[in-house]
Design a protein that fits this description.
GO biological process, one term: tRNA modification
CATH architecture of the largest domain: 3-Layer(aba) Sandwich
Order of helices and strands: EHEHEHHEHHHHEHHHHHHHHEHEHHE
Protein name: tRNA(Met) cytidine acetate ligase
CATH class of the largest domain: Alpha Beta
CATH topology of the largest domain: Rossmann fold
Keywords: ATP-binding, Cytoplasm, Ligase, Nucleotide-binding, RNA-binding, Transferase, tRNA processing, tRNA-binding
Number of domains: 2
Distance between the termini: 19 Å
Enzyme class: ligase
InterPro entries: Rossmann-like_a/b/a_fold (IPR014729), tRNA(Met)_cyd_acetate_ligase (IPR008513)
Mean pLDDT: 91
Radius of gyration: 21 Å
Length: about 400
């Protein structure tokens, strides 16, 4: 069986994801589709709308054959680390290919840009450092460095757009680890990654779908035309079982407590906190009455909203620099979240050849490997009222892989 991989968050699974999945299968001529999916917290430093189990079920019901979890140490990182962990896991699953969505849609342009950047890597890093010293954010520093090196225009990938950036890092990671996986890309349709409003009759960004759910209350008709019916059913099921959807505001009291009660030294030891920003975080926590207000007070030209969200997520989960650095070199396990009949057949073929241990029960996992994920899931459950909080925490230990 030929397998292809996709790297996803599915927050939630929508028609754009379905289009990407179907075209990816067709382009790669794959028999099985394997999704490496972020767990309960995401790359932009946000809690997922619904749990990883619910999102895995959405994926399986829409045509994914196997869902594995991208560990917290990679899922909540900058694009480079997020991509590296994802590619390593797809390679460990013996995927023959992987396919990503991009604004470019031109795999040749990605290859050309990567090759040119490799030859200019030292100069590129030097320019980025200079730009950061001038007070620019990391994304802006990279964009300016790329322009300075003349790596823009025809034949190059625009590395100022979010999906092109991720695609570049997927392909760069694949070259670094020497995988035989072939890369494919599909041009994204209609909605931009961060669009907050519905801009098409059938395709909308996950951001706009979440915004509609939170602002309108859970009115399924508001999003029905933008998501598969199976996603609607899973959202209804989750809301019925746990009463809410997750968003940062539900964690604000916990975050505020952590920021106010922790010492400056303790905060400075948290992953991604640097350059004395702990002072700014602490001061804003004492003044703000909501997460939105807190973020507005903290954000600067140098620190993007996403970077601050990741920072404070690590405060919330109490993830130190030492802990994160020791876990983010390379994935050490494959956490199986779910599979269908085709997925079971594929696993039966490759399981003995997997280069990493596969975890289907937490009791079989080395605690030192997986404790960051367990802690993150327990913190994620704190956004729920009782008795649902205890129920979701228990699922981390008791839930077997979903089988459809």
């Amino acid at each position: 069986m030929k397998s292809m991989g996709v790297i996803v968050e599915y927050n939630p699974f929508h028609n754009g994801h379905l289009h990407h999945l179907e075209i990816s299968k067709m382009k790669t001529n794959a028999d099985a589709a394997i999704a490496v999916m972020s767990g309960n917290f995401l790359q932009r430093g946000e809690p997922a709308l619904v749990s990883k189990w619910s999102r895995a079920k959405m994926a399986l019901r829409s045509g994914v054959d196997i869902v594995i979890e991208l560990p917290y140490a990679f899922a909540t990182q900058k694009a480079e680390t997020f991509a590296f962990g994802s590619i390593c896991l797809l390679d460990a699953m013996h995927c023959q290919s992987y396919c990503f969505g991009s604004e470019s849609g031109d795999i040749g342009a990605f290859t050309h840009t990567i090759e040119k950047l490799e030859r200019s890597e030292d100069r590129m890093n030097s320019l980025i450092k200079e730009n950061i010293k001038e007070g620019m954010s990391y994304p802006s520093s990279v964009s300016k460095a790329i322009a300075s090196l003349g790596l823009t225009g025809e034949g190059h990938v625009d590395l100022t757009t979010p999906n092109n950036i991720l695609g570049y890092h997927y392909m760069k990671a694949a070259r670094e680890i020497g995988t035989a996986m072939k890369a494919f890309t599909i041009q994204r349709k209609n909605a931009d990654y961060h669009d907050e409003d519905f801009s098409s009759a059938t395709i909308a960004s996950a951001t706009s779908i979440r915004k509609a759910l939170f602002s309108e209350g859970f009115q399924q008709d508001v999003i029905r035309q933008y998501v598969p019916e199976s996603t609607i059913e899973e959202l209804i099921s989750y809301h019925k079982e746990f009463t809410i959807f997750h968003q940062w505001e539900r964690y604000w009291p916990l975050l505020q407590y952590r920021l106010i009660s922790a010492s400056l030294d303790e905060l400075a030891n948290i992953y991604e906190i640097e350059e004395g920003i702990e002072h700014r975080l602490k001061e804003a926590a004492q003044l703000a009455s909501s997460f939105q207000e807190f973020m507005t007070k903290v954000k600067t030209k140098r620190y993007t909203w996403t970077r601050i969200q990741r920072m404070v997520l690590h405060v919330l989960t109490n993830t130190t620099k030492e802990q994160m650095i020791s876990h983010c070199h390379k994935p050490s396990y494959i956490r199986l979240l779910g599979m269908n009949e085709k997925g079971r057949k594929y696993l039966g073929m490759v399981k003995k050849e997997l280069s990493l241990p596969m975890i289907s029960k937490l009791s079989s996992a080395k605690q030192e490997d997986i404790h960051l994920d367990i802690r993150a899931s327990n913190v994620y459950a704190q956004g729920l009222p009782e008795p649902y909080k205890a129920k979701l925490m228990k699922m981390e230990y008791s839930q077997p892989p979903i089988q459809l």
